[in-house]
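User: As part of a screening pipeline, I want to sanity-check one entry by hand. Below is the sequence and the SMILES for NAP. Please return the complex as structure tokens so I can compare it with the automated output.
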Amino acid sequence: MNQKIRWGIIGLGKIAHKFVQDLLLVEDALLCAVASRNLEKATEFQGKYKALKAYGSYEELFEDEEIQIVYIATPHHSHAELTIRALESGKSVLCEKPIALNKVQSQKMIDASRKNNQFFMEAFWSRFNPSITEVIEKVNAGEIGKVKYINADFSFYVEEQPGRMFDLNLAGGALLDMGVYPVFLSYALLGVPNKIQAISIKHSSGVDYQTAMMLTYDSAIAALFTSFASQSNMIATISGEKGRFNLNPVWHETSSYSYFKNNSNKEHKSEKPLTGFGFYYEILECHKCIKNEAIESRLWSHQNSLELISIIDEIRAQIDLKYPGE
Ligand SMILES: NC(=O)c1ccc[n+]([C@@H]2O[C@H](COP(=O)([O-])OP(=O)(O)OC[C@H]3O[C@@H](n4cnc5c(N)ncnc54)[C@H](OP(=O)(O)O)[C@@H]3O)[C@@H](O)[C@H]2O)c1
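Assistant: Here is the complex for your manual check:
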């Protein structure tokens, strides 16, 4: 019989509400339990999405032997500790991006995955987005020749509010919240850069508010930007010697891309409608890996997460952004 994969979710905030709706679309997923620091909140979430169990602490969910995989949807500062705790309880883990605050924490999470022989993946859902996946394949197949330039940003006006985004203690700020996406795109297509240059305007809370990043490779440059200060077009352009691809807005969760041959502006658009919000695809990847008894994904591996966070570490060093407790 095809056994369902039994999920637990911890941290019942904004993204957990979206993720769970995609989880319910996956045929062989079972929403076994949800946990909040507040039982009333967990019970409400349980009722809304028909979870089998609700817990008023994360620890109770970690101790539930029925859970196979935990989705961690808490603020950045807590990813490492909670992931390691879940792995040590014999669960697989899908942890929201960024994997952790820094490379040192990330390495400890990966070590815990290996030691406990449990699947672990950073929830970099864009890597599994059908349009982005196809563009990566086409670029790797040489369809636009050598990539010379990437232009990607992730910028929205975010109203100042109490909560994790403007809170240095919760490792808020544009870079970890949104800037990881343009950096991801450059890394996914060109790898680790030779040189990183970054500048930032800080918010009065100490988090980064507007951050610009230039990543230089042997024969390509990526110009990347992230901010909470204003809205951008949210198109990512990958430009090569023989043409270019645009990932259409909002590019990191896009349902289409466009191809332009050579220097032409004639657009060839490929539509790839999403199932759910698009978290569906990373969930399928978790299921595939768990069923194959793999502890990491080949599409978004431990090494990929480590290299990405190492780039972010260097950007943070340049803009002098440290989080408490680091
Ligand atoms: N993939 C995406 O598209 C996407 C989009 C947005 C965010 N994210 C990522 O998802 C994670 C959560 O983001 P979010 O927007 O869902 O945040 P959020 O709305 O603030 O929710 C985070 C949840 O974490 C729990 N939590 C645990 N310790 C906390 C603390 N000290 N302070 C505040 N909350 C705490 C809370 O749940 P309980 O009260 O239930 O314990 C809270 O509801 C972050 O890593 C973020 O970068 C990903």
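Points to compare against the pipeline: The first strand starts at residue 5 and ends at 10. Residues 130-273 form a domain with the Dihydrodipicolinate Reductase; domain 2 fold (CATH 3.30.360.10).
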